[in-house]
Amino acid sequence: MPAVEKIRQDVDELMPGIVADRRHLHENPELGFQEFKTAEFVRQRLEQLGVDDIRTGIGGTGVTGLITGTGEGSARNVLVRADMDALPILEENDTDYKSQNDGVMHACGHDGHTAILLGLARLLSDRKDTFSGTVKLCFQPAEELPPGGAQAMIKEGVMNEPPIEAVFGLHLANETPVGKILVGSGPVMAAADGYTITIHGQGGHGAYPHGCIDPVIIGAQIVVALQTVVSRNTDPMDASVVSNCVFQSGDAFNVIPDTAVLKGTVRTFKDETRDLMEKRITEIATTIAEAMGATATVEYTRGYPATINDEAMTELAREAAAAAVGEENVIPKPPAMGAEDMSYFQLEAPGSYFFVGSRNEEKGFKWGHHHPKFDIDEESLGHGLTAMAMNVLTYLGR
Ligand SMILES: [Zn+2]
Ligand SMILES: [Zn+2]
C-alpha cells in the first residue's frame, strides 16, 4: 500500500484548488446531456495537467482521459467514474457560489464528484513514477436522467480502449456525518424499473353503473392486488418494493370515465426477482381487468440495474477508506432502494462504489440530496480524494 501520509499531504495542498473547482461547477450547473460548459471545463483542466488521449463528446457530453504510470506494479487498467449533471431545482441557498443558472442546481453533489476526479487527475499526474498501468478518468453525463450517460458511454467503447479491468466510483452522502465513509460488498443500490398500466373500460353516467365498465373500481383492485407481489410472491429475505405512485382517471363527480392509468416504480436486487415482478404485475393487471370485463395494457420499462459491489474490489476500497479516515470511521453500507447508473460499469468489470459522508449539522449542511438547500461540508472532498487515490494506487500496485 502506498504511504497514506504522503497522499494526505498532497491532498491538503490540492484542497484549495479542488474546492475552487467544486464551487465553479456549483455556480454553473447543467442538466443531463447538456453538460457543455462543464465538459469544456473538465477538458481544459485535463489538458493543463497533460493527461493523455483526452476525448470529448463520448455518449453525449462525456469526457475521458488517460494517465499511464511509468513505475512498477501490475500494469492493469482501471476506470474511475464521476457523474457531472445537475438537477432541475431552483437553489435556495445564499452562498457566494450559489447557482447562476436559475432553476438548475447541483443538489446531489455531482459537482463534488467531478472536482474530486479532477483532483485525482492532478494527484496521479504528479506521481506517475509510483505506479504502472493506466487510469482512465471517466466524466459521465446524465446520471439523473434515465436511460443515463453510463450506458451511452459504454456503447461508445469507454470500457475498451484500453480494456478496463476494474472500475471505481464514489458518491457524497449527506445523511452521513463528514469524516465517515460507507463501504459495502454485494448489492448496495437497487434496480429501478417502472410500469404504466392502462385500463380500458366503458364510461357513462355515474347513476347507471350497470351500463358501464368502471375503470376506477378495476384500478383500485389492481393497486391493492399489486401489493401482494412483494408480500406473497417474493422471498421475504429478498428485499423489493412496488410503489404505485400514480392513479389517474376521470374528472367529473358524476361521470364514470372510459380509462384509468396507473404508474409505479419497482425496486429489486436480483435479476430473477426483477423478471418475476414484470411477470406478476402484468398477470395481475391483465387478469383482474379481464375478470371485470375490461382490458388492461401493461408497459414495463427496465431502468438502471442493481449496483453490485465486487467482494475483492470492495475489500480494497474498505482498506483505502480506513487509511483515509481511520478504521473506526468506516461504516458498513447497507443496501438501499435508490438506483445509480454506475451499475452499468460494474456489469462490465468488477468494481466498487462507496459513499463519503458530507453532512455537518453545525455548519448547516444537513439537507438531503435533491433538496433546494442541499450543500456539503467540503472537507468531504478531501476524504473522498484520499480514499480514491489509495484505492486506485493500491489496485495498481498489487
Ligand atoms: Zn441524485
Ligand atoms: Zn447523485
Structure notes:
With 398 residues, the protein is of the alpha/beta class. It folds into two domains: 4-188 and 306-397, Aminopeptidase (3-Layer(aba) Sandwich), CATH 3.40.630; 191-302, Alpha-Beta Plaits (2-Layer Sandwich), CATH 3.30.70.360. It has nine helices and 16 strands. It has helices at 4-27, 36-48, 110-125, 149-155, 215-233, 271-291, 311-325, 342-348, 379-397, and strands at 52-58, 62-70, 77-83, 132-140, 166-177, 181-183, 186-189, 191-200, 204-205, 241-248, 255-256, 259-268, 295-302, 307-309, 330-332, 351-359. An eight-stranded mixed sheet has the order 1-2-4-3-5-16-6-15, sandwiched between helices. Helix 3 (110-125) links the parallel strand 3 (77-83) and strand 4. The radius of gyration is 24 Å and the shape is elongated. The mean pLDDT is 97. The structure holds zinc ion (ZN) (2 copies). One zinc ion is lined by residues 108, 144, 369-370.
Write the layout of secondary structure elements.
Blueprint: H1 4-27, H2 36-48, E1 52-58, E2 62-70, E3 77-83, H3 110-125, E4 132-140, H4 149-155, E5 166-177, E6 181-183, E7 186-189, E8 191-200, E9 204-205, H5 215-233, E10 241-248, E11 255-256, E12 259-268, H6 271-291, E13 295-302, E14 307-309, H7 311-325, E15 330-332, H8 342-348, E16 351-359, H9 379-397
Parallel strand pairs: 3-4, 3-5, 5-16, 6-15
Antiparallel strand pairs: 1-2, 2-4, 6-16, 7-14, 8-12, 8-13, 9-11, 10-12
The structure holds zinc ion (2 copies).
